[in-house]
Amino acid sequence: MSEELFKNVISHAKEYGFVFPSSEIYDGLAAVYDYGQNGVELKNNIREYWWKSMVQLHDNIVGLDASIFMAPKVWKASGHVDGFSDPMIDNKDSKKRYRADVLIEDYQEKYRVKNLKEINKAKKRFGDDFDEAQFIATNPNIKRNNQKIEDIDARLKEGLESGELQKVKELIDELGIACPVSGSKNWTEVRQFNLMYSTQMSATDGESQIYLRPETAQGIFVNYLNVQKTGRMKLPFGIAQTGKAFRNEIVARQFIMRMKEFEQMEMQFFVQPGTEMKWYEYWKEHRLKWHKNLGTNPEKYRYHDHVKLAHYANAAVDIEYDFPFGFKEVEGIHSRTDFDLQQHEEFSGKKQRYFDNETNENIIPYVVETSIGLDRMFLVLMSNSLQEEDLGEGKTRTVLKLPAALAPFQCAILPVVKKDGLPELAHEIFKDLKLDFNCYYEEKDSIGKRYRRQDAIGTPICITVDHESLEDSEVTIRFRDSMEQRRVKIEELSSIISKEVSMKALLKGLV
Ligand code: ATP
Q: What mean pLDDT is reported for the chain?
């Protein structure tokens, strides 16, 4: 079922102008995608929701737009040149390459699924008396499964952190993990692959190798004092940025989930050393609230603590979403300590210190980061919203129940027929509403067909102009989710749509 849903999401995204494979007429480019006419609107709206919630709603967070190219030393300092790699393993029979840690995590997931089934069974059996926490703590099957998960975690962590990758290979062998494609257990050794793309930059004194940024965060670190000084910022304060990042993902599958060129939305929050855990907890909670505020089923989200901490972090958690192919990371919250700023101070030879007026001290702040993939968020919304609804009498409809404020179009204006002055009136309405909303205008095909097309791209409100409208200045509005239809005055349209679809209404859920 889930696999089917995922296939439907991919084909729906293509058929309705959301996502196309890149350079498709040349047979595409692996793991690179283009956003179509509806996709770009949805993507812009997700970005806007993120930006406004981070920058506009916080008086101590400001924005930044740093370049993709940076001085190569940045990546030496940040640890990416030496350490930004994934442990990969190849299956000799299928010739497919996998991330070794992901193969192991997928194996563990089977035990989590078993536990969940056990819990659900018990829930049904005990009804209202069910004490879930006690059940988890005492049920022998669940305890055994959790112990297995923990043991595997510990061994994976040991192998990855010590760099002794043969231990990871041994674990894969012992667990009997088979290639999902060939079903064989004929594996190569585990090896590290660097994920950064490099290119050449010409200058008068020759060419130098530079990198395409693999994360937007470093642009924030190297500008933090510029922003702090010119913006007279005081700790704690944050800098937010959205933009493209590039990673040579070797195992790139699952549509826009893992791409070679993708967009990040990151915020670095600079804090007094020693207060970072408080802020880490704050952002962990706040970011989950941002997700749930979209009306997504709350059970589809969970936290996942990192087993292997990145070289810069002292605490890290993922916010995971239950995609059609299982729980996977959408966003990371990382306590990055003062690692990056210390490194930049050392490598640039420039002090990266903040002068604290109150204590008269120069300090290097600690940083808590929130980092979300815009494309993954796009996939969350597409998979959560795409529904095949049974309308009875053998009829169904395909509807994309996107959060109204994020839908590509907020309303569609549809004259019932293409004559008798109806298009003229409809255009007048369009002219008025387009200043506030992204409106769709369409006069081709029957009204039923047009409604279905708007359902399929997620338009929350359709406005139908008919012959009576010419007499009484009223139109029919139809709501996407309930399919309820109502007659309203043309002059009321703007305020009705505002109430239903405004970004303001969405943001209110966060304050
Ligand atoms: P993963 O473990 O899935 O590779 P990551 O831990 O490397 O992700 P981060 O470096 O924490 O990811 O990046 C922050 C966010 O950027 C991720 O939560 C994800 O939403 C997004 N992201 C990372 N890599 C990709 C990619 N290749 N394609 C699309 N989005 C990505």
A: 94
